[in-house]
Amino acid sequence: MPAMTIKLFEGRTKEQKRELAEAITRETCRVLKCSPESVDIVYEDVKKENWATAGVLWADKSA
Amino acid sequence: MPAMTIKLFEGRTKEQKRELAEAITRETCRVLKCSPESVDIVYEDVKKENWATAGVLWADKSA
Amino acid sequence: MPAMTIKLFEGRTKEQKRELAEAITRETCRVLKCSPESVDIVYEDVKKENWATAGVLWADKSA
Amino acid sequence: MPAMTIKLFEGRTKEQKRELAEAITRETCRVLKCSPESVDIVYEDVKKENWATAGVLWADKSA
Amino acid sequence: MPAMTIKLFEGRTKEQKRELAEAITRETCRVLKCSPESVDIVYEDVKKENWATAGVLWADKSA
Amino acid sequence: MPAMTIKLFEGRTKEQKRELAEAITRETCRVLKCSPESVDIVYEDVKKENWATAGVLWADKSA
Lengths: 63, 63, 63, 63, 63, 63
Description:
The first copy, chain A, has about 60 residues and is an alpha+beta fold. Helix content of chain A is about 35%, strand content about 30%. Strand 3 (about 50-55) of chain B pairs antiparallel with strand 2 of chain F, so a sheet runs across the interface.
């Protein structure tokens, strides 16, 4: 508490996930006045064929 | 907004995901009077060993 | 299986939820060749102060 | 994409949600090189009787 | 980790949530060999008009 | 209904998932007085580089 899930397109590097988790945790603690240990973040890598906006798969938009 | 997640057994084809995203987006816009651009759909492919109903994994039911 | 969650702004009527569930279930069964009984849909009503796009709460955009 | 859900204890103010959405969106765009418009955040307010850690409801821990 | 979300119809009592969280945490630790502190459970109370199976809202089934 | 999602680190065996699904379903039915058929559980295997606590990826903690 807080617990976050972050869906992003697959292909993000471990370095980006590391840096983003660090930054989001820092900002969350600053705004909500909570301890870092209470912040949990789970990334979900999503394939472009598994995400649609406006009824079109992103795999098709990129084509 | 609206944002949907759809969990389904893995093995569905890209064609099925494409057709379903299109149909769901169309029906959603018709009923909710929203624009297609506002409809986001994320599929989650679930392995049969990761889904249980009535306490039994689907991987075991299929056996 | 499939199991869906649909986040939408609060204020949608029960009639809209009823009609949308019906339509989405029908389309899902048609495309995935599954039985209606296997389709589960959960709506989540989201307040405008609980949804942000581009870093701005929708409660503030409407203002 | 990215799309985030953030579960937090109820009682956070609209000001905190506003400030946090702004900060997380800014950091996400910086690290992932994406546009602010692509960042969606949904907060879920959770009652203390609906969250348990180590098998104990937070409503009981506070007691 | 593990982190669970449990959607159930609204109306469950705090006593039931307390007892279930305790039992699930105990069983999880037994099977996965993890410590109780690592088990997080969040309940989501769902209204009957927000859950549909086979295309019918549970609010309508009860009618 | 109830419907559960359980995020756990990847590497859990099918035997553990089978045993845990069985135990959780049994306890849920006992406490909530519901039928086993109504209990749905979905596991989500999470890589250690996709889970952060206190701003640090578990992939880095293990290092």
